[in-house]
Each structure stands twice: as C-alpha cells, then as structure tokens.
Amino acid sequence: SVVLAAARPPSPGMAEAEAAGDAGPGPGPGPAQEGAELAAVIGATVPTGFEQTAAEEVQEKLGSASRISRDRGKIYFEVPARSLPQVHRLRSVDNLFVVVQEFKDYQFKENKEDALKELEDLVKKLPWTDPLKVWELNNSLKKKKTKRKKHNLQSPASSEKLNDGGEEQGADQNNTNDQEDCAQNPAAVEPAGGQDTEKPQGVASRNGAEEEEVKEQSDVKDEVQASSGSETKAGDGQTDEGEAKVLRFRVTCNRAGEKHSFTSNEAARDFGGAVQEHFQWKADMTNFDVEVLLNIHNNEVVVGIALTEESLHRRNITHFGPTTLRSTLAYGMLRLCDPQPTDIIVDPMCGTGAIPIEGAAEWPSCYHIAGDNNPQAVKRAANNICSLLRKNENKDSSTALGAPLDIIQWDICNLPLRTGSVDIVVTDMPFGKRIGSKKKNWDLYPACLMEMGRICTPGTGRAVLLTQDKKCFAKALSRVGHIWRRAQTVWVNVGGLHAAVYLLRRTWERAEERRSFW
C-alpha cells in the first residue's frame, strides 16, 4: 500500500487526501492505462487471532503477500482483478472489500464539526474509479454465478433451502468483530444498526469445480476488458441516456479508539451525505447496491467498497445450533494441526458439524469422524452433511463421490475408538455458558483430555481445542501433563468472548488402558 504522508498544513488530514488526489490511487495501482491489467487491493476480515493463517492461505493460493492490519482481524493483499473468483474461495476470510484508499496516520481535528467536515471533503479527493470497476466486475460475476446456480439446482425444495454456499436464507447472522463502535448510516439519520445487518441478494462465487473455475476465468477476462475499455457506470452515477439505474447505497462505519470527537453514527451520516452528493446515488439502509465502508482505528483510516453481501463463514451450515462455530474459525483450527494425507481426524463434540464439514471440504484425503452425545446435535450435523453432498452433486451431477466423513452419537468420555488409532483431535469444547456449566467443566475437561489422549497416536498425535473456560482448561491440562504437552496458544474472539485455541502434542507416554469397547 502506498500511503502519502501529510506535511503540516492547516488541515493535516486533508493534506494527505489532497496529495493522494494529485498522485492517483494510494493503496493500489494508478488508473488503468491502455492495455494495463486492472488490479485491486483487497481487504479481508478474518477471525481475530488467525490473521497469520489467512495471510499464509493467500500466499499459498493466490501468490500474493499480505499485510496484517494493526486493527486486529483484518489483512490486506493485492491481486489482479481476474483473480476475484479465487479470492471468494478463500476459506479463512469472513468478509471482503476493495480498498479505495488507506491513511495510516490520519490526523483528526479535535473539534467535532471540523473533523466531520474533513471526512466530508475527503470523498471528492478519493480515487474511486478503479475500485468501482472492481466492484462492477465482482457484481457481474455474482450475477453469472446466480444464473448458473439456478440452472444447476434441480428441485424447488433444494432451491428454497440452499444458496450457493450451502446456507439457509434468513438464518440469524452473528458478527463477532470486536469493534468498539459501528454504524451504518447513509445520509439519513437512522439509528445505528449492529454489524452485518444487510439483506443478501446474492452470494459471490467460491469453492467451484474445475470446469466452473475455467469458465469463471474466461468470464473475468471478458469483464476486465469491457471494464477497462469504458468508464464505470457506478463511478459517474449518470443515467447514460436513461439506461443505467440510479444506484442505492449505504455507508457502514466501524470505529475503534478513544481519541475521536465523533461517533461512528455521525461519521457514517456525514460521509454518506458527501458520497450521495458526489455520485448522486440514493441512500438506502437495507436494499442497497453499494456498501461503502469507512473503517477508523485510532489514526488509521481505510475507505473501501464491500465485495461480499453475506459473510463467507456461513458457507457450510444450513441447520444452526445454539453455538454454531464459524467455518472460517474451523478452518483456522484445522490448519493449525497441519493435516497430512490419510490422517484420521476426530471431532468428539461436533455440535452442528462445522469442523468436520470444513475438514472434509478442504482436506478430502483425510478421514473425518464426528460425534456428539446430544442426539439433536447429531441430527443437525447429519443434515448439514447432506446439504453439502447435495450442493456438490448440483455442481457436478456426473459424479457423486460423497465425502470422507462419518457421524455418530457417542459419549465423549467413552469413545468407541481403538487406543492410539487417531492422528488428530479438533473440537470446540463447551464454554459453560450456553451449553453445560463452568462447574460441570471441572469434571468434564480432565475426562475429555484423558480419553483424547487414549485414542491419539503416541508421539505424533495432536489436538486443537477451543475453549473460553481457560482457567478450568489450564487446571485439567496440568492433571494430564504426562500425555499432553501444550505447543501453541492462539487468542481468539468468539461472539465477543475472549477464548483460546490450544495446540497440544501427544507425548510418547502410554495412556491408561480401559476395557475394550469391542
């Protein structure tokens, strides 16, 4: 990212913007020249604590280096616009946006009116052209994907139940972003909503079959050429002899920091008013075409345009339970234990099956076993697996390979698995809040760790365990220190709760034998 430092004129924040206005776009490449490829700086929100995991996935799958933001839970990377389909198929990202401009050290005025006036004036100085081309291209891909999806779905029932990511329309969506202050308020002074309250109209492409990917690539090339050859309709906001409709928009402001003289609601309102005046777009809080993002973290300011209408973490789940784990967090946990081909991976407390389903989708050469003592949870997980299989069949009806995944109802403290037969245990342990209790955890955790130690292969076995009950877990781990050694701890935010993901390695010590289940 290129961020131009401000000199010390009377308006420090605006000097940065004016310099950027003269020099062209800050974070990305300059305006698309004749024959030059359209590129974009993409911002992605990821589960807090797993920023490095997301950066590694971007490097591995897209070949792009990422920069981890000082604002936890965000990374930035640059890609050519033709790579947008692959960007949407990343497993570790929740939401995506294209960066319009980034200011690493924006100097806000102390007076509220002056600070808000500077944010208003900033709109006219920002390099909107290329980011809006990327947004248009992203939109056209979503429309193509939706058409293909409708064509592929065979029954009205599955069409009603599933969208492209295997998600249930209208299900509750929880955003666990730990921002201090958030408002979505374009021009109109409506009450500030919570985060991610938009009504999705379509879901961007991801995780497609190879043939689909090739088609997407050619679609992207065509769209890039078309986009480069003409000014974006969104950019000028004109009606083009009545052909293009007036776009509807909203501004979402996420603000964190104590030194600002304004609230996120006020920033979104005034910035949104300036966007409306600049583009002649229509403000609409719920049924919008464009979502402009204003992220303020202390003195770091990032302006972006959203590329996802619904968080990608809901891609696998159609049947939700009381504590459904995000697919993106499940991916981070699985990646932490470095699964190898032929590994047997067990989730003994699977709930709705987020971890094993993510594992089967991303590591199909491993064998995944899921279980829970709650029959309702087992039923939900089985339904989610069926939805995943149905989605895969719709993508490629010529082959129905199934998934390397089984589910069973069992007792976590008495698993029907042979001693030393499992390579990896990955699970989300009860926090003692919505399910179980802190008191029960004092007995449950040591028993779980002992049984996990019994089924895991001595010397090479590993476990990745998520819990918010850190005190109880530490005590339980000290009691089984002869079979489990803590290798790494990742601090994460789960629904506003500060939790930890522990990577444990199995020692060579033999676990206590018990009577054979068989």
TrEMBL record:
Main location: cytoplasm
GO CC, one annotated term: cytoplasm
Comp. bias regions, Low complexity: 13-22
GO terms, molecular function: RNA binding; tRNA (guanine) methyltransferase activity
GO BP terms: tRNA methylation
Domain THUMP: 191-307
Cell cycle is among the record's keywords: no
Subcellular locations according to the entry: Cytoplasm
Record region (Disordered): 1-34, 143-243
Feature: compositional bias, Basic residues: 143-152
Homology family: Belongs to the methyltransferase superfamily.
Protein name as catalogued: THUM3 protein
The organism of origin for this protein: Menura novaehollandiae (superb lyrebird)
